[in-house]
Recover the amino acids of this structure.
């Protein structure tokens, strides 16, 4: 690992623990174990450091799982719209898997990660825009599966695909947010219950 990458990793760990607002450039220098001269050789400011941390560790969280999900949805093993819709609805990023594949890190604290994401979205509009774009793509993918269900007769034709996809996405997003607040919530149980209710409403 090069010096710049080591600074990014150490700073990401710092931001996970303390947030970006409470972390100074001096603290990033200290946890990285480099001199000020070395730090400022790679980063002109704390803001530049934060943006590089976002691009390296946070943006892939929104982009990469969606890419993989699209590929997996088209896998022949998922033979019908209900299976595809359930897979799309119930699939949540595994943080160990995400860390290994896209950041080179393991054991990322899920709760701290999402607090950091929301803090960064508030301060950096481009990250909020990325999140919105990925959300729209996720809703579009879900609506396409519902349309597929209409064509094969599994889903009622009068169902509004986009509205149903949006409702599914909002339910999932809300349950994930509750899970970050209360770790006792069993997501898969909630997914099964809410998906079953939605599917009963839209199936023929």
């Amino acid at each position: 690992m090069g010096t710049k990458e080591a600074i990014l990793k150490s700073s990401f760990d710092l931001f996970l623990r303390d947030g970006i607002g409470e972390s100074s450039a001096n603290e990033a220098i200290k946890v990285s174990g480099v001199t000020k001269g070395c730090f400022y050789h790679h980063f002109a400011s704390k803001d530049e450091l934060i943006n590089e941390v976002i691009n390296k560790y946070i943006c892939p969280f929104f982009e990469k799982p969606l890419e993989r999900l699209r590929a997996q949805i088209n896998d022949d093993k998922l033979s019908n719209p209900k299976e595809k819709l359930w897979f799309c609805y119930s699939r949540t990023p595994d943080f160990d898997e995400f860390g290994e594949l896209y950041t080179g890190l393991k054991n990322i604290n899920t709760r701290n990660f999402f607090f950091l994401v929301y803090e960064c979205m508030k301060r950096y509009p481009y990250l909020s825009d990325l999140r919105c774009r990925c959300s729209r793509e996720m809703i579009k993918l879900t609506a396409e599966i519902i349309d597929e269900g209409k064509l094969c007769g599994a889903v009622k034709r009068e169902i509004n695909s986009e509205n149903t996809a949006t409702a599914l996405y909002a339910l999932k997003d809300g349950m994930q947010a509750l899970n970050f607040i209360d770790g006792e919530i069993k997501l898969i149980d909630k997914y099964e219950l809410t998906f079953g209710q939605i599917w009963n409403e839209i199936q023929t």
Notes: The domain at 50-202 is CATH 1.10.357.10 (Tetracycline Repressor; domain 2).
